[in-house]
């Protein structure tokens, strides 16, 4: 019996596109994990929920191009709240050059356009073991 | 009195011969992946070939007719592209109004024949650029507009009565103010509203189902706002299309081709009902209900989809409202090539994809076409990708010869058969939505969200399993690909808009602003048409955010049932 990983999925800022985030949330849930789907949020609300829910992973979705501003804020707020074990992954329309930037800022993994659900689910499963 | 296209003897002969042929060749047929039946993207089984028997039950005059006449299957205009080619309407908008005005002018200079202006995320949601929620999205995905002054800048130097403008004000909460600003700007420039040509998107499903974001209006309120604009235009801006049912976005969110058509038509029918309830005659507004469709991968299914949409709309309008003006039954539509079908990998491949999408759109009889940029899967278009996309549109129009004859695939056994099958499926979904209490009710219960989410999930599963090929993603991959293109860099926007807003707030009359906000409140309380009031009061340099805040105080917000 695999342990269910608790994952928060949120869309950053005002980005209106939900297709990716909902499809990913469903795949993670179908693989036996627990998903809290938050819809659109700003970093402080996301981290507040992560504290309340004791989340293992936070998945941040963005298409609008706001990821370099808002995703690092989530990482920073997690550190400030001493949630070092909560892992952040980012998905959506992320240009390749932004991937190393996000990782340098503390994002554990980035799933850009064309990523496979299997890879995302595997990443979540591994994250739950740490 | 129906008259079949073929006589029964011919069909019988054809039938027998086809069976013999099928037996002979079936063992050589290559099965698709997983030994599945051949199917269209929406799951309609496809035969190895089509013969007269597939269309044997059709009556030419009733089922197809002639361009410009009901049921409009062959086209909405009598001469189609021989009389007037489709409008080349490339989407544009980013950063400040100054940046976007420059891009509009560049596209027009390079031969675009209409404007297609998109607004940034905060504007689409009714927030000012300076709102704390907006700080990371200002100028992204479209242009930032806060006040009437911004609208003046955006259309500076563009002749409003000559160039048609499509305002991609997706959500009614945005449209009610932004369209009012466009109209107010026209009045200030001395252009009568009845001379304005253009379209606003203004689709309540965009607000509540497709592109949800902070502060979603309750469906019934979003619907009311949308209808306020339709009613206003029917009275004062008769050449304006006050709504463009955004099937394109439904499709991008996950819908199948039949769902895309069924949901736009269900939505349009709800608007028609509401307008009649408000005392308008069907012919006062129906010819101005316009549609915005996707041009996706399945070439023949897309062509059949457009043809089926025209027939369904004409049939239902005739049956339910029996309008006197045939234009009230004509399904007029813009096409944008499908962004969701484009890849971030090997982005130059997208030029080929979008060209196929656009060709399907014009073989299907579109009134205007936007071709996506090759960088669509990564960012908003650079100047080079915008111009390249416009050139794809121009090559299609000027070099391929597709404009020479009307509905060139009409009469293809396959295309006609597929058109009939799609019509059947579209009708079934429209009927289901009717049974669920109509589109507003079906949205409130989360039914539409579920339908779309299920279809999106299945689409992704088909990519995962390889059932659906995506070149560069699940096949023909380039390992460690280096991106061969430059990407768009957003120019500084927030600080520029902030300066303008501060200046306006300092200079405007506080009393006039208060008077405007009070008038809007009163209009909400009395349940009158909000556009009539907002068109007047944007003159007080009241901001979009201030207006929206007032509306949200009155009508509240809604949490869409997405997951």
Give a brief outline of the structure.
The complex is a heterodimer of chains A (130) and B (563). With 130 residues, chain A is α/β, with parallel strands linked by helices.
| Unreliable spans of chain B | none
Largest interface: A-B, 35 and 45 residues
Beta strand % of chain A: 15-25%
Distance between the termini of chain A: 17 Å
Number of strands of chain B: 10
Mean pLDDT of chain B: 95
Oligomer: heterodimer
Strands of the largest sheet of chain B, in order across it?
Answer: 1-10-9-8-7
Order of helices and strands of chain A: EHEHEHEHEH
Determine Rg of chain B (CA atoms, Å). Answer: 24 Å
Structural class assignment of chain B: alpha/beta
Mean pLDDT of chain A: 95
Morphology of chain A: globular
Helicity of chain B, in percent?
A: 40-55%
Strand content of chain B: 5-15%
**Number of distinct helices of chain B:** 22
Description:
The complex is a heterodimer of chains A (130) and B (563). With 130 residues, chain A is of the alpha/beta class. Helix content of chain A is 44%, strand content 23%. Chain A contains five helices and five strands. Chain A has helices spanning 19-30, 43-53, 67-80, 98-104, 117-129, and strands at residues 6-12, 34-41, 57-62, 87-92, 109-111. Chain A has a five-stranded parallel β-sheet with strand order 2-1-3-4-5, with helices on both faces. In chain A, helix 2 (43-53) packs across helix 3. The longest helix of chain A has 14 residues, at 67-80. Chain A is globular and about 35 Å long. Chain A starts with 5 loop residues before the first strand and ends with a helix. The relative contact order of chain A is 0.20. By secondary structure, chain B is of the alpha/beta class. In chain B, the strands form two sheets. Chain B has a five-stranded parallel β-sheet. A five-stranded parallel β-sheet of chain B has the order 2-3-4-5-6, covered by helices on one side. In chain B, strand 2, helix 4 (97-109) and strand 3 form a beta-alpha-beta unit. In chain B, helix 4 runs parallel beside helix 6 (148-154) and helix 10 packs across helix 11 (257-277). The radius of gyration of chain B is 24 Å and the shape is globular. The N and C termini of chain B lie far apart (51 Å).
